[in-house]
Design a protein that fits this description.
This protein has 14 helices and 15 strands. With about 450 residues, the protein is of the alpha+beta class. The strands form five sheets. Strands 5-6-2-1-8 form a five-stranded mixed beta sheet, with helices on both faces. The termini are far apart. This is Phosphoribosyl-AMP cyclohydrolase. In the N-terminal section; belongs to the PRA-CH family. Its EC number is 3.5.4.19. Homodimer.
């Protein structure tokens, strides 16, 4: 989609001047935000402007802005001075006619200090993910320019609110117990919005610039429970389902999230306290979530998926919208792997390529596993080693539940295209037995005649 440009002829500069002249409080800066700032607007998009005011200085009396906006397409100055010191926020809308077409301007006026402070708080629309949203300074006082001339407005990620996630499952269970169908749907939507922030410590870092981008990133987290995407869409009300199916989806989400965040109990303790963190480690939280899940899933779709226990491998759902597949020699599994890379792979009849894993700085061989196209794509794009289990027929991310992570430093394809060399930073043991490497059993070599050189 091509970006829809703003009207020509100094449109933004003209409006910045009008808003400064008409403001009820001293203006220190005006910024363009939203879809036009990030070059994602259509011809129907609003023009979003932030007008930053200084409430600690004398300000003109109220009056004139709304009337002027109605009479000349923008506000005008007027009134006597008075003092203000309280936080201030207001919103006005204008319809400006340009070349026979109406353009909607959405103007948010905010106290500049509270606006700066707000950048230190998570965005309420971002599913708990960190935000990096483009902005464009239209005008600023020199005293404030260095503080507000920010080409990208960053807001931090939310804390992993596991306690709130579990409590919201309790609301789903309570609503199910009294057949409050609307209560189930409202609570399930709240629960889904919390899941990405709780899963964030187990996932690669990502920043979002828009609500649509946050939604897409929240659904695409590579470390997530089985069926995560479908359950999220159901809980958010974006896929049809009965109240019973909704309760079952909410229960699956929480039951699947809990073991994935177990390695991050220290982070949970910082947010929710030591007892919840201890319950996460010793299994009490799993039992409590199962207790709530039985009530929330009452009369559901019967497709409960047991949560993985600590030490088990993680199952990650196959994404939608495939780009490549397993190839003529192997089974078709959807994948987003670059077709140029996929074309170089020589797969087994099962559609797999062997992956030899080594410690990146010492060369120590740690393990051998298998990848298909999608496992390789996830490994290359997330920085977390992801494999295909031949016995379980599912994807798993090394260390997602055990804490023995593999952070990928490089991946090389051999000359025949049938093997990968994955160089990683290994955290803890690579072998499921607890050994550093899977190759700890040495066999006797009795052959004679070897060249001593």
């Amino acid at each position: 989609m091509d970006h829809a440009p703003l009207p020509e002829g100094g449109f933004l500069d003209d409006w910045a001047t009008r808003l400064r002249e008409a403001a009820e409080r001293p203006v220190v800066g005006i910024l363009l935000r939203g879809s036009h700032a990030r070059r994602g607007a259509t011809v129907h998009s609003d023009v979003d402007l932030d007008v930053l005011v200084d409430n600690r200085r004398p300000v003109p009396a109220q009056g004139g802005a709304a009337q002027a906006g109605a009479t000349r397409g923008g506000p005008t100055r007027g009134g006597t001075d008075r003092a203000e010191a309280t936080p201030y926020a207001a919103r006005q809308a204008y319809l400006a006619e340009v070349d026979g077409r109406l353009v909607h301007l959405s103007v948010a006026a905010r106290d500049v200090r509270s606006w700066v402070d707000r950048l230190g708080e998570p965005a309420d629309w971002a599913f708990g993910l960190p935000v990096a949203a483009p902005a464009r300074l239209l005008w600023a006082e020199e005293d404030w320019r260095s503080r507000i001339d920010l080409p990208v407005l960053c807001q931090p990620a939310d804390q992993p609110r596991l306690e709130e996630l579990v409590a919201t499952l309790g609301k789903v269970a309570s609503a199910r117990s009294v057949d409050d169908h609307l209560g189930v749907r409202l609570a399930a939507a709240d629960l889904a919005r919390l899941c990405p922030s709780v899963l964030r410590p187990a996932n690669p870092g990502v920043r979002v610039a828009s609500r649509r981008g946050a939604f897409a990133a929240a659904l695409a987290l590579p470390v997530a429970p089985a069926g995560y995407r479908d359950d999220m869409l159901l809980c958010l009300g974006l896929r049809p389902g009965s109240v019973g199916q909704l309760g079952a989806a909410a229960a699956r989400l929480v039951a699947g999230v809990v073991p994935l965040v177990r390695p991050y109990a220290d982070r949970i303790a910082e947010v929710a306290g030591a007892d919840l963190a201890a319950a996460l480690v010793d299994g009490r939280l799993d039992r409590y979530v199962a207790q709530l899940g039985r009530a929330a899933s009452r009369g559901g779709d019967g497709s409960q998926v047991p949560a993985p226990r600590a030490g088990q491998w993680l199952t990650v759902p196959v994404p939608e919208s495939p780009v490549t597949a397993g190839g003529p020699a192997g089974p078709v599994r959807p994948s987003r792997l670059d077709p140029a890379i996929a074309a170089r792979l020589r797969r087994t009849p099962d559609g797999l390529v062997a992956a030899v894993v080594r410690q990146h700085d010492t060369g120590e061989v740690l393990m051998v596993a298998w990848m298909d196209d999608e496992a390789l794509h996830r490994t290359l794009t997330t920085g977390r080693a992801t494999y295909w289990s031949r016995s379980r027929q599912e994807y798993w991310v090394k260390g997602a539940t055990s804490g023995h992570h593999q952070y990928v430093r490089s991946v090389a394809l051999d000359c025949d295209g049938d093997a990968l060399l994955v160089s990683v930073e290994q955290v803890g043991a690579a072998c499921h037995t607890g050994e550093r490497t899977c190759f700890f059993t040495e066999l006797p070599v009795t052959a004679e005649g070897a060249d001593p050189r």
